[in-house]
Amino acid sequence: MNAERRITQVFVELADTLVDEFDALDFLHTLTERSVELLNADAAGVILSDQHGRLQVAASTSNQAQVLELFELQSAEGPCLDCFNSGHVIANVDLAQAETRWPRFTEASLLAGYRSTHAIPLRLRDHVIGAMNLFCLHQSTLSEDDLALAQALADVAAIGLLQERAVRESQLIAEQLQTALNSRVLIEQAKGVLLARSGVSVDDAFRLMRAHSRRNNQRLSDVALAVINGTLTPRPPGISD
Q1: Given this model, what pLDDT does residue 79 score?
Q2: Which residues contact 71 (CB under 8 A, 6 or more apart)?
Q3: pLDDT, position 92
Q4: CB-hemisphere CA count at 13 Å for 214?
Q5: Backbone phi, then psi, for 127, in 5-degree steps?
Q6: Which residue in 41, 125, 202, 223 could disulfide with 134, CB within 3.0 to 4.6 Å?
Q7: What PROSITE patterns does its record include (predicted)?
Q8: How far apart are CA 60 and CA 188, in angstroms?
Q9: With 50 as the cut, is the pLDDT of residue 164 above it?
Q10: What SS3 state is found at 201?
Q11: What CATH number has the domain spanning 171-229?
């Protein structure tokens, strides 16, 4: 399949999630996965501003990326934070040359094996609601076309998260974002439960829950709650839950 057709498919996939049963958490995970695929990255993570203005990790493609995003927030430095605060893309960062700018984030990223990073704002016009980090194990340089694609993907995410703004009060939009962040807490608890119960890795635990969610048309947060309550142990496709 050529690149242009795949890009078209991805935008159709993202648009298809903008329905009545909009699941913000699953939508953001799809965004990170497709961004990694289309932009030749190795991992991605998204931070969102909650209804109180606090930044939290909302989605990531791996546990390692999530840890780096959390570390970035805790240490109050890094490209994703600068991207969110400025509303501008921060691209083609050579981490070997970034120690002065973000010493703690750079050290942690290099220890994790990453060599370059990019940060893309999630924004609707001047309203920035979050940012996406792309992590690369190799030295990555995004072209102008790549950056335009990355921003388009992020813009679709922002529009999706803010789609009800025209018909609802902004407080309800903030509550939707807060729900996604609260759901993330349940997901993390459920991953720990599956790790202890089944011995799977945290990344595999998430994949099992997400696969079950999609097979059974359930929200990820509902699946996670069932795992925590002990009423569900997701199995790989083809094996009955």
Answers
A1: 96
A2: 104, 105, 108
A3: 96
A4: 13
A5: -95, 105
A6: 41
A7: ANTAR
A8: 12
A9: no
A10: coil
A11: 1.10.10.10
